[in-house]
Amino acid sequence: MLALGGAAATLALSGPAIAQETVKIAFIDPLSGGGAPTGEAGLRHFQYMAEVLNARQKQFRFEVLAYDNKVNPQETLIAAQKGIDAGARVLVQGNGSSAAAALTDFVAKHNERNPNRQVIYINYSAVDPSLTNEKCNYWHFRFDANSDIKMEALTNFMRTRPEIKKVYLINQDYSFGQSVRAQARAMLKAKRPDIEIVGDEVTPLQKVNDFAPYITKIKASGADSVITGNWAQDFNLLLKAAAEAGLQATFYTYYAGGTGGPSVVRQTGLAHRVFEVSQGGANTGDAATQDFEAAFRARTAIGSTYPRVFNAMNALLTAMQEAGSSEARKVAPKLERARLKPHTGSDGYVRPDDHQYFQTMFVSSFGPMEPGMRFDEEGTGWGWKMVGRVETQDTLVPTTCRMDRPS
User: Fold this and answer.
1) CATH code for the domain of 315
2) 55, burial (CB in 10 Å: exposed 0-12, middle 13-18, buried 19+)
3) From CA 371, how far away is CA 384, in angstroms rounded?
4) Does residue 373 share a domain with residue 259?
5) Are 103 and 69 in contact (CB under 8 A)?
6) Do 379 and 255 sit in the same domain of this protein?
7) Where in the sequence is the signal peptide annotated (predicted)?
């Protein structure tokens, strides 16, 4: 069983020197269009962790190959095949659950047909619950909390805020956005039946260039709060329109911390009125974690928006070390029983039943820097402050996965 001490821990090898093996990782995410800044940030996280892990040990040398999928399922499959043809045996993808659904199906079929070229799929950000339920796949491992887990944590926090009376839902029109809106309705009804849902909108994924008409409707509804799972351009343009219209609503989000998000939140002037549920921010961790953050920022010129990438890469390396191989059929049995202290938080582990990683979750608010806060975001002078915490054991959700395991 894997055991890691966090992203900043030193991973050492023992025993006689052995030949170094190159492990190619195909990074498949948007590198053009509205999702490009988000995809580029993810790529920097994986490239940085490849550098860190290559410096820590000499058994495996990680190399990251980048492919643009344009948040398109078909482009995702083309990129996956290109990566495999280039020698990649690990595929990583995160932004867009529709792309993730296509990729996990592709990987299952590819591995069945190509037993000597099998691959592992590391999902670092696609959070549609179906990916670890009815669409679960032995070769797929998700290191982000699924959207139900995130909504559970977010609505548990919202339940304690009596000032919330009217909520507006605005989400992207694909599987993830539909999951967010459905669970928001269900969980608010169970936890705060007094809250009125005064609007429920979906918008085409990364295709809306002006959210002003939607903001007009939110203002007209009298909503005091907005719940959104929007990410990348769809979040940034939503908040930009809110700032320009002077909308004085509180936002409860999944991805306000994504690239460009903090800058547009700062423009709204809504100090500590934009909340994000996540695996923790730059100011959340202990001294070692914050030192790691400082090194990451110095090397990449961005803040860490994907701490789960650190978890995934550490787990992947340790699984390979324990297996003594990078072959998917040898690594997967080790990875599915990974236990590791997450980059931020107290405990984390992969559940073998569905390959979902569970970890401590946090709710943070964004506002002016305060004593004890070390990092601001995007030069705004504002930073993330933890206001709620959910321990790992309280994030567990059931699964309907009936995993087809290779014989």
Assistant:
1) 3.40.50.2300
2) exposed
3) 12
4) yes
5) no
6) yes
7) 1-19
Express each pLDDT in 89-138 by its tens digit: 999 999 999 999 999 999 999 999 999 999 999 999 999 999 999 999 99
Q: Cite the DSSP H helix spans in 30-130.
A: 36-56, 73-85, 97-113
Query: Both 187 and 230 in a single domain?
Result: yes
Q: Smallest Cα–Cα separation from 178: which of 212, 223, 213, 127? A: 127
**Is 283 inside any structural domain?**
no
Nearest to 180 by CA among 189, 188, 171: 171
> Which two structure tokens, joined as six digits, stand for 136?
């679960």
Question: How many domains does one find in the chain?
Answer: 2
Residues 43 and 185 in one domain: no
Are 394 and 346 spatial neighbours (Cβ–Cβ below 8 Å)?
Answer: no
Burial class (CB in 10 A: 0-12, 13-18, 19+), 24: middle
Looking at residue 135, its amino acid is: K
Residue 367 lies in a domain: yes
Task: Assess whether 329 and 221 both reside in one domain.
Answer: no
9 located within any domain: no
Structural domain harbouring 129 = 21-145+291-359
Structure tokens that stand for 334 in this block? 């080790």
Question: Are residues 176 and 230 both part of a single domain?
Answer: yes
Using DSSP bridges, classify how beta strands 60-68 and 21-29 pair: parallel, antiparallel or unpaired.
parallel
pLDDT at 283 over 90: yes
Q: How do residues 173-182 score in pLDDT, each as one tens digit? A: 999 999 999 9
Does residue 367 share a domain with residue 315? no
Instruction: Measure CA 404 to chain center.
Output: 25
Do 165 and 179 belong together in one domain? yes
Q: What is the CA radius of gyration of the chain?
A: 20
Query: What's the rounded Cα separation, in Å, for the pair 72 and 152?
Result: 29
Residue range 326-355, pLDDT digits in tens? 999 999 999 999 999 899 988 899 999 999
Measured on CA atoms in the order 39, 44, 45, 46, is the torsion positive or negative? positive
Spell out where 238-290 has E strands: 250-253, 274-278
Q: What is the mean pLDDT of residues 173-196?
A: 96
3-class DSSP state of 259: coil
